[in-house]
Amino acid sequence: MFNQLLRENKIAAGILTVIRLYLGYAWMTAGWGKITGGFDASGYLANAIANPVKGPDGSMVYGWYVSFLEGVALPNIALFNFLVPWGEFLVGLGLLLGCLTTAAMFFGLVMNFSFFLAGTVSHNPTDIFLGFIILAAGYNAGRFGLDRWVIPYIRKTINKKTAVAEKATA
How deeply is 135 buried, as exposed, middle or buried, from its count of CB atoms within 10 A (0-12, 13-18, 19+)? Predict the structure, then answer.
């Protein structure tokens, strides 16, 4: 019942818009600050590798993630120095404009969890909670945004291509 309210109700769409704009502004300004401020993630990654998240017994909790940081992220730091700021900026832009909201929020959550797994708590729990609300709402979260026109256009285009493909195979 709550999920139906979240996904279909216009009042819920208004509340979701406020949440979406809040998250979008936070993501976009964080990304823009990194784009214009000479962002370098190598120190952050080195610290996440040297000081991994540990459980109550003192053992590493996310060893697989530390291995990923050590074996993939740090050796390819130039790629990550590009992906992180532009990813944050584009997630924020998508959320602010309400354009491809679900995709933007999905990638925002991927980044939130990446920061979380690296040991950064900050405002990530709040962002993850609000992000899951936006993700669960789907189209309704972007109803008062560009998704109002973009999503029907995409669906129409996909349906047209499917009809053409079905006709060709028949």
Answer: middle
Residue 60 backbone dihedrals phi, psi, to 5 degrees: -65, 135
- pLDDT, tens digit, for every residue of 132-162? 999 999 999 999 999 999 999 999 999 988 8
Q: What's this model's pTM, rounded to 2 decimal places?
A: 0.91
Residue 134 to residue 141: CA distance in whole angstroms: 6
CB 47 within 8 A of CB 113: no
Give the separation between CA 108 and CA 85, rounded to whole angstroms: 12
Q: How far apart are CA 147 and CA 101, in angstroms?
A: 7
DSSP 60: B
Percent of the chain that is helix, strand, coil (3-state, to 5): 80, 0, 20
Mind giving me the DSSP string for 120-165? --TTHHHHHHHHHHHHHHGGGGGTTSTHHHHHHHHHHHHHHHHHHH
Residues with Cβ within 8 Å of residue 60, at least 6 apart in sequence: 52, 53, 54, 66
Question: Alpha carbon 144 to chain centroid distance?
Answer: 19
| Residue found under tokens 């790629």 | 79
> How crowded is residue 159: how many other Cβ atoms within 10 Å of its Cβ?
10
